[in-house]
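seq as requested:
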Amino acid sequence: MLSLNEPGSKLYLHVHDNESRHVGFNRATSEIETEIPGSYYEDKGNTTFIILPENMTDFEVTVDGKDAHEPVETYELVVSTVRDDEPVDEVTIEDAIEQGKTQNFNVKLDPNREITIETPEEPDEESDEESGDNNLLFTLISIAVMAVAIMAIVVLKKNRGRG
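struct tokens:
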């Protein structure tokens, strides 16, 4: 079972399996999707629950802040497992999300129903800026080299015309 608790405005909880099936709110249709057989979705205002079938052992969880009202919203994501109606494991993530952003978590359950959660690495914003700066520098140097080459051709043609 997964739950998303949020004290602020609307965040959405999504699950995707390895077959790209979705459980969660579909913004395009304004409807709740439960494409994974045996899944259940319940939205209780500031808490959302998703129950998945026991055979789900590898899936992606997304906390969606696209409709958040505040610039930064805090939340608590709880992933728990049971076996024979008895709790087995529980992992709680307390975090914050920026308005308009999403955060993804890869969840894996071992044969004992123990939970492992991995956060996919996000690109380093500083490297993206440096990459952009390098691209700009390369473009400016290329333009300068082309300008010098064009001027050299013009000068050569002028000199040939005089001779």
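The two ends are 87 Å apart (CA to CA).
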